[in-house]
Amino acid sequence: MSVLSVLMAAIAPGVALMSYFYLKDRYDPEPISLVLKLFLFGVLLVFPVMVLQRALVQGLGENPFVFSFLTSAGIEEFFKWFLVYFIIFKHTSFDEPYDGIVYAVATSLGFATLENVLYAFLNDSGFSALMMRAFLPVSGHAMFGVIMGYHLGKAKFSPDGGNKHLLLALVLPLFWHGVFDYTMLVTKTYWIWFMVPLMAFLWMRSLWKVNRANAKSPLRVIHPEDQVKI
Question: Which InterPro entries match (predicted)?
Answer without folding.
Answer: Peptidase_PrsW_arch/bac, PrsW
